[in-house]
Write a structure and sequence with these properties.
alpha+beta, three-stranded antiparallel sheet
Amino acid sequence: MDTKTVQENIENIQGFFSHVQLKMFFISLALFVVSIIVIKLLMKLIDKVLATTKFDEKIKHYISRIISIILYISASIIFASSIGINTSSLVAILSIFTLGITLAAETVLSNIAGGLIIITNRPYTIGDYIIVGDKEGTVIDIKLNYSILRSLDGVLAIIPNKELSNTSIINCTKLGKRRLESKVSVHYDTKTEDVKKAALKALSHFNYVLKDPAPSVHLTNFNASDIEFTIYAWVNSSDYVPLKLSIYEKIREEFDKAGIQFTYSHLNIHILENEGEEKE
């Protein structure tokens, strides 16, 4: 067999393998395209299943995104492996990259975890008035990593969800109604019934004060120079602040009509001049 014949055989073999490799590439590419179509169809099915659950819309969206990313990455790695690319190093690089991101974004991930807890357990929702530590206000948005409160004086408070998921939250809206407590102090010579009558008359000016539970007035403390009464009134959560801002004006108006005087801190000093005598 001469050199020319050997060369021709080698070229034929190389051509055969090149043809086989090219054929395998197109087969792998076709399978990859099919897998992308299948993933899209599968995601539509998953979205329909998620739509039937009671999860919050945001958590449904995040679950869908995470599943789709995992499926697309898996399909890409399988395609790369089928055309002869060594994917072990790629997987290792992705693992290291993921670990690095996880360590660098530990706080962010903690906030995201807190956000998922809040979205799932719903200790509060948008529109609720909550108190968290020294901050309080109406929840105007819940992001995955933080929540936004708007206080009564128009200040926005952005609070990390990690903090919100690990602390006590007072939700003033959840039950639908709130009880307002208003305290007043009057002289010792004031009749209890006169105070109760005038206080209830003050509450009657507000038609949004609930009849059930009924408003009430109670003597709650004997102070050094006055008697303390507490006025209790139930309202819908949205009416709490308006009543709190207006109630004392009506209390003063009705107390003035009834001749009831408010007290103020004072001190009587008695000076002894002679034995058995005193001068005020």
